[in-house]
Every structure is written in structure tokens, then in C-alpha cells.
Amino acid sequence: MPHVLIIHEVAAYPAWKQIFDQAAEIRKRAGEISYQLLRYDADANNIVHFSAWTSLDHARRFFESAELVEIRKQAGVKAPEFIYLHEIERGVL
Question: Where in this chain does the record put each ABM domain (predicted)?
């Protein structure tokens, strides 16, 4: 399954989270299937967004779209790093 790992700093987590939640339907239409949000242990404004997608092409189109660039500005996102991944194995111990 295709995944995207995004690491970014935000100006203020509560403001970012509100905009993130408002974009749920846009993300779903673009092909996001599921997501996890994590934060750095010592800094609540450093966010990791890990998500599963229908395809990496859909994810790239979405994350590189002008609409999302504007949404990131509104949300106070600073220099996001996008890592596009193919799952090769999953397990539970």
C-alpha cells in the first residue's frame, strides 16, 4: 500500500489541527485512506503525518496542488518534508 510521511513544524498545533480537520473531505476525495498524527516528544509543534493513499500519484498531485499550498500557508506550516513510500511488509509482535 502507498504511504506518505510528512514531517513539518507548525506555528501553533491547535490552529493547524483545526484546518487539518476541516480539510478531511478534501483529503478523502484526493485519495487519502487513513492517517496517523504524531508529535515530537519535546515539541508539540513538530508534527508527523503518516497516511495511506490509493496511489502515490494521487498523493503527489494533492500535496503539490495550489489549493494545498494555500491551505498549508493558512495553517502555519513551515517547510514540510514529503516522503513517498511503498509498503513492503507489515507485522504485529
Answer: 15-72
DSSP 3-state assignment of 93? coil
CATH for 2-79 (3.30.70.100, 3.90.110.10, 3.40.50.10780, 3.40.50.1000): 3.30.70.100
Name the nearest CA neighbour of 49 among 9, 11, 91: 9
CB atoms within 10 A of CB 28: 10
pLDDT in tens, the chain (93 residues): 999 999 999 999 999 999 999 999 999 999 999 999 999 999 999 999 999 999 999 999 999 999 999 999 999 999 899 999 999 999 999
